[in-house]
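[Meeting: bench + compute handoff]

Bench side (C.D.) handed over the final construct sequence. Compute side (W.E.) agreed to return the predicted structure before the next meeting so the bench team could plan truncations. Sequence as handed over:
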Amino acid sequence: MKVEKARIGDIPQIQRLVNYFADKGEMLPRALSELYENIRDLFVVRDGDEVVACAALHVFWSDLAEIRAVAVAEEIQDKGAGALLVQACLEEARSLGIDTIFCLTYKPDFFARLGFRQVDKMELPRKIWGECLKCPKFPDCDEVALVYRLER
């Protein structure tokens, strides 16, 4: 399995993959416009020309980024694709000099196995809440917040 940066042609497939799990209530949906606007955030795993897994690292501030939109096709779950994508996001954060990475998720055990620790959402900076205002679940967020701190 190889992790690569997403290409423009991947966006419709990424949206289908993410929104498949969103429809099941396992993650938040993503609009095509949001994915195109944030293409530089996205990593993918492909099987031939098909995107079978994706994740994004979204930078919020000089010391803060979020891992979001982690989705792995059911047929390759538990084969390491999700972990590889999260590691790619962490490596990119490290290369950018960002030391705090967070996620909001319905799958906290997955992130905990990768070294993230659970925190109260209120510990996350107010900057994050600007994006939360756009969420259909605001103000009743039921996702779990986790944080990973990179060593310099």
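W.E. noted at the follow-up: The radius of gyration is 14 Å. C.D. will use this when planning the next construct.
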